[in-house]
Amino acid sequence: MAIELKTPRDLEAMRVVGRMAAETLSLVGERLRADMTTDDIDAIVRADTLARGATCSTLGYHGFTRSCCTSINEVICHGIPGPRVVATGDIINVDITSFYGGFHGDTSATFLVGPVSAEARHITEVARHCLALGIAQVREDARIGDIGAAIQQYAEAQGCSVVRDIVGHGIGRKFHTEPDVPHVGRKGHGVRLKAGMVFTIEPMVNLGGHQYRELDDGWTIVTKDGSLSAQFEHTLVVTKEGCEILTPRSRPLVNSEVFGVDVALGAG
Ligand code: MF3
Ligand code: CO
Ligand code: CO
């Protein structure tokens, strides 16, 4: 099936829900403290999302029982909020998807809990930069492989690895739709981008190898070698000149910026 091109009206709605998800993510950064549980984070996400009149896309999604994903340290993605306490020195990705006006908006960031190791800062900054580099490839007539190629080349040059198979995705009235957006790839290969396509870019970058395994809970994805993993995600629409980020932040993230500057695109 052809990849859907959003209409100007669809995009208006996607800007609204995208900003809602981004605001909720910013709030999580501001509230994040050591000694909170990941269930506490989930409660913040749920309450803020509902206060905006939106709902949480992950709640009930293929049986997922929580309002966001919380992925700590060696957890790559899809961590289920629960009783686990967030500790000083941890890095934690919080992934928020809101649904409002018939559309989904999906965004995530990795936060640093208090002083963290140099390795933890490194993997977080590499992942943040990978998202920016992927976004910079997007414009009409570019290929989807250009995105993964740029991400993979940078991550590997930094001594890190990029998770395969778990990919960015088309998004709109459905949470996950075409196209797949791999975070590794070859320049000039894959789907040709058209203005109006909407998808996420959400590179997962590991300090060690790219291999992963799934825990017995059927959701949590962890690095096989136990190394740290970080991730950032935006939802965007392809334009003739480049792209527009649909999940831009109104202010820099708190508890994520190492140098006090949010270098991820869409910060302002
Ligand atoms: N938000 C995730 C993504 O970026 C998907 C989470 S699905 C869940 O695609 F069921 F694990 F919550
Ligand atoms: Co996503
Ligand atoms: Co997400």
Walk me through the structure.
The chain has 268 residues and is an alpha+beta fold. The chain has a single domain, classed as Creatinase/methionine aminopeptidase superfamily (Creatine Amidinohydrolase, Alpha-Beta Complex), CATH 3.90.230.10. The protein is 26% helix and 24% strand. It is built from 4 helices and 15 strands. It has helices at residues 8-31, 38-51, 118-136, 144-157; strands at 55-56, 69-72, 75-77, 91-100, 103-112, 161-162, 168-170, 177-181, 198-201, 204-206, 212-214, 221-223, 229-231, 234-238, 243-245. The strands form 5 sheets. Strands 1, 2, 4 and 5 form a 4-stranded antiparallel sheet that branches. A 3-stranded antiparallel sheet has the order 3-12-11, with no helix packed on it. A 3-stranded antiparallel sheet has the order 6-10-13, covered by helices on one side. The longest helix has 24 residues, at 8-31. The structure holds 2-amino-4-trifluoromethylsulfanyl-butyric acid and cobalt (II) ion (CO) (2 copies). One cobalt (II) ion is lined by residues 106, 169, 200, 202, 233.
CATH class: Alpha Beta
Structural domains: how many: 1
Q: Which architecture name does CATH use? A: Alpha-Beta Complex
In helices, the fraction of residues equals 25-40%
**DSSP, total strands:** 15
CATH topology: Creatine Amidinohydrolase
Work out the helix count: 4
Can you give the mean pLDDT?
96
Protein structure class:
alpha+beta
The major β-sheet equals: 4 strands, antiparallel
Q: How many angstroms does the end-to-end distance come to?
A: 35 Å
CATH superfamily: Creatinase/methionine aminopeptidase superfamily
Small-molecule binders = 2-amino-4-trifluoromethylsulfanyl-butyric acid, cobalt (II) ion
Radius of gyration: 17 Å
Order of helices and strands: HHEEEEEHHEEEEEEEEEE
Bulk shape: globular
Question: Uncertain runs with pLDDT below 50, 5 residues or more?
Answer: 260-265
What fraction of residues sit in β-strands?
15-25%
